[in-house]
Amino acid sequence: MRFHNQIFVALLLGALVGALTDADSQLFGLSLLAVHDTVGNLFINALKMVVVPLITSALIAAMINISAGRDLGRLGVKTLAWYFGTTVLAVLTALLVFNVLSPGVIDGEPAGARLGLASDTSTVVASMAERGAGDFAGIILQVFPPNIIKASAEGQLLGLIVFSILFGMVLRAQQGPAADTLKQMISAFYDTMVSITMLIVRFAPIGVYALIARTVSQTGYAAIKPLSWFFFSVLLALFIHAFIVLPILIRVLAKRSPIRHLHAMTPALLTAFSTASSAATLPLTMKSIEQRSGVSERTSSFVLPLGATVNMDGTALYECAAVLFIAQAYGLDLSLTSQALIIILAVMTSIGVAGIPSASLVAITLILTTVGLPAEAIGMILATDRILDMTRTAINVWGDSVGAVIIARSEGEEGVLDVPVEQMEQRYHSSPRALHETKQRT
Q1: Cα within 13 Å of Cα(227), Cβ side
Q2: How far apart are CA 436 and CA 299, in angstroms?
Q3: pLDDT band at 435, cuts 50/70/90?
Q4: DSSP state, 116?
Q5: What's the confidence (pLDDT) of residue 120?
Q6: pLDDT at position 361, please?
Q7: Per-residue model confidence (pLDDT) at position 95
Q8: Closest CA relative to residue 115, chosen from 233, 229, 238
Q9: How confident is the model over 235-253, as a mean pLDDT?
Q10: Strand 30-31 with 105-106, pairing
Q11: Burial, 395: exposed, middle or buried (Cβ in 10 Å; 0-12, 13-18, 19+)?
Q12: What CATH number is associated with residue 266?
């Protein structure tokens, strides 16, 4: 069975087992929930274990292999422009859908009184009591952390990325035997990390099964009923962005088939959905984009690690949607100025949200406070957050991969999505070095 089919079967099996069991179910005296939780956390931890060394070695190697400073500047500008542009498009999509459908208004009346607050609202608010605008103003300071090791341990990947890029740029300019030896060591270290990552990825079907089974057995499907209109409005906005806006951009800018690319990215997207972590999915994203879509290592090793940190289309869309829904539920008619402020804050805070499950709740709390809504109102959306978090994470990864394809094509790479997935994988494994060479336009 092909790898993406294994993940898909694992996802369905996990959903079935989760639906047939609950938090108290046992097998041979063992709690099924505890087993699923342990196996799922082991898989996520294994993926997170390789994120920092993989990002560091990938970015440094990419900087070393870029031939000139002008190439780096061009690639960086294209990448940042893509990430900013698609994030704005995602937020505007949420704004359009929620202004048209108004899911926070039921039968002409604000839905706040009907929905009430989730039972664990006080816990969430207490955990966020010390969070404020200073947390996101600190994003600027994260660019140059005073302790790069501490920043990496705390998940502040933005500083790690900046350090890796600077290290690679300076090392590329160094000459002499010592510099050449260090370059070769970094290249070998990167190859080793890729091999370790692929070993971990082989266990993805088991991890996906455990994570889905755990989630469904804990929350079930009944959690979305009280908030079904909000739930499906968010899904509609995510669907429009993922399957209309981004595919149009792939077709127009890259002149490639979005369906072909979706097929290539299926393993990464299913893993992103089950783990709800774009950072943990990064190793599989890089594998899929290189081996199944044909993007060069030069492009993927720069675009994807950066995207896993700063490109959060689904997260920005959800933040905007959640704030608009809460405003509607309280019967507030937000002015154009307030909506413009929400757009700016959603774009800015999505950059600083870590690639981990439910991190966007902190950003939503900030936006609510800024526009004058009570932070406690976040309790109304907690019931559906986990499922929507899984969905928007998959959209984040999908946006990163689409950007990698478009940027690769703009850089003159001709072997991107030009043959079916099976042939692409055969081409990669038969001659990976040849596939990774960037084919420039003459």
Answers
A1: 26
A2: 9
A3: very low
A4: -
A5: 45
A6: 67
A7: 92
A8: 229
A9: 95
A10: unpaired
A11: buried
A12: 1.10.3860.10
Who wins on pLDDT, 279 or 236?
Answer: 236
245 touches 96 (CB < 8 A):
no
- Model pLDDT for residues 42-97, shown as the tens digit of each residue: 887 887 787 778 778 877 877 776 655 555 678 888 888 898 899 999 999 999 99
Name the range with the highest mean pLDDT among 57-61, 66-70, 154-158, 396-400: 396-400
Tokens of 86: 């698609």
Predicted confidence band of residue 244 (pLDDT cuts 50, 70, 90): very high
In whole angstroms, how far apart are CA 192 and each of 48, 158, 188? 16, 23, 6
Count of domains observed in the chain:
1
Is residue 442 domain-resident?
Answer: no
> In this structure, are residues 160 and 56 in contact, taking their beta carbons and an 8 Å threshold?
yes
Tokens of 360: 């966007």
**How many residues appear in the chain?**
442
Instruction: Determine the average pLDDT of the residues in 21-36.
Output: 82
* Residue 44 tokens, joined: 């996520």
- Residue 21 has a CB neighbour count (10 Å cut-off) of 19
Tokens, residue 53:
């060394």
- Determine, yes or no, domain membership for 441: no
Contact present, 331 and 112 (Cβ < 8 Å): yes
Two tokens at 204?
Answer: 């993805």
Whether 272 maps to a domain, the answer reads yes
List C-alpha distances in Å: 356 to 205, 246, 350: 20, 23, 12
142 domain residue, yes or no: yes
Q: Write the DSSP assignment of 243-296 as a string of letters.
A: IIIHHHHIIIII-S-HHHHHHHHHHHHHHHHHH--HHHHHHHHHHHHHHTS---
Under a CB-based contact definition with an 8 Å cutoff, are residues 356 and 205 in contact? no
Name beta bridge partners: 109: 106
- Name which of 201, 167, 177 is nearest 55 in CA terms: 167
How far apart, in whole angstroms, are the C-alpha atoms of residue 400 and residue 244?
16
> Tokens at residue 173, please?
């300019």
Dihedral (CA of 291, 249, 235, 135) sign: positive
CB 342 within 8 Å of CB 365: no
Sole residue written with tokens 């605008």: 133
Residue 193 lies in domain:
3-436
